[in-house]
Amino acid sequence: MKTKPLSLIIALAFCSFSAVASANQCDSPYNQTAPKYSYQLKKTFEVDGRQGITTDGKFYYVSGSATLSKYDLQGNLLVSNKTPFEGYKIPANHIGDIDVYNNEIYVSSEWFMDGVGKDIQIAVHDADTLKLKRTFPFNPDSGQQEVSAITVDKVNNSIWMASWVGEESGRYLYEYDLETGKYKRKVHLQPVPQWIQGIVAYQGDIYLTADDGTADDKEADNLYRVKIDNNKTNAPVVLERSFDDFKDYGEIEGVAVNPKTHELLVHSNRGKQIVLGMPKGFYQGYDREISEVYVYGMEPVCKKK
What we know:
disordered N terminus
């Protein structure tokens, strides 16, 4: 009998190890170190609004710092609200990422200036008119100092908010009851993404976009996945994807998942320099800021047999 070359033995052993590792990863209900999906860029379209994106599968909804807009799925503008703060009991000047649920737009709003937020509000707008319907009280005892994004978690009947401001406030996600608006708790992110901009709850997980790449140094921003456990005060964070396929380096913003097509939507801005969260000047080659939505197909890394 011929003896197999050492190189072949090593290769076979490696393949066997990889197969076992892959099987173990796919057999595990939740892998804490690997991405859950692979993402394929399908299209991009420009929008009027630099903050957030959401969809109910029938329309796209986009937030600017002080605007709300509604688009059809071909990217055509249908309705725009240029005065979204009308009816607010507390003055506001900034909207972050948004979400849509039961034909209502959930808005994370505040008064924001030079990296400092205050007077956080949870506002609910009509998805048809984009006008204010009601507000939820914010609980300052939570320790949240700024709000960059909001999402409706249908699995846990909750609202989750994130903070762009770092240090203590940016280390947590903040949970409110969807029915009553009552503050429930905060969950410690481990490790903590830097400069959270977008949030979406999808099939039991929470996905976050973070503006953690420095545009001046041509660093990509990232998507993270968080697994929430109702019995734990902390939650593991996994790097899900780096967006090195954007048209240019800039500022990532909101995130959403189309409930009908299961496509990932990522909002991003390019062209303007951002200092302490405020647009200042233009990068070379730009005379305006460009806000775009990137649409990705999502394929599970571990497919069901």
